[in-house]
Amino acid sequence: xxxxxxxxxxxxxxxxxxFAKNGLADTSVDRIASYAKVSKKTIYFHFRSKETLIKExxxxxxxxxxxxxxxxxxxxxxxxxxxxxYLYVICDRISDISIKAFYxxxxxxxxxxxxxxxxxxxxxxIRFNKLLEQVKAEGYFKPGTEIGSxxxxxxxxxxxxxxxxxxxxxxxxxxxxxxxxxxLRKQLISLYKGFLTQDGIEKLDIIINDVNLSQHADLN
Length: 220
Known about the structure:
The chain is mainly α. The chain has helices at residues 3-22, 29-36, 40-46, 50-73, 79-93, 99-107, 109-137, 147-163, 172-175, 180-195, 198-219.
């Protein structure tokens, strides 16, 4: 990795921290430069505008989520274990995205649309499909439940948050939410329990609890 790429990522990481704290609209290039301890000239050398920085930051964030999920899917573990880790990784990777930043992003949706589309296609129709096939092969799918219908339920659950106009149609769960990760976690657990057998649900609950405890212990 070159120094140029390192500097771009460095700026993106600091910009994302400010976006999460203050939202997009209230985070100026001046504030990013001051926070990252770089000049505005350096920022504009790497990004043509604030909008370009937002777009690339969003793409970088989604790429990080994708990579982390891929690593989980390829683990040599029972599928039900991977499902619990899949849940944790996705929610953990977006835990720094505040509701304010998410609302602001809706105003710039066209900037992030390509990144969102690519993430959604891979997240739902490649990664999650592979995970569901593994879970079904291990016997944890309810009789009569199809992978295709579960995939579409997942798509319908995720797509509004990336593609709808939140300024015109704000979901009730977002109005009172603390964070996006809280919403996603609850919805994913509900989704899982819709197609898992009772045995699968019980195993998943244990795994989710174990993963959360393990991560908490690591932080301490």
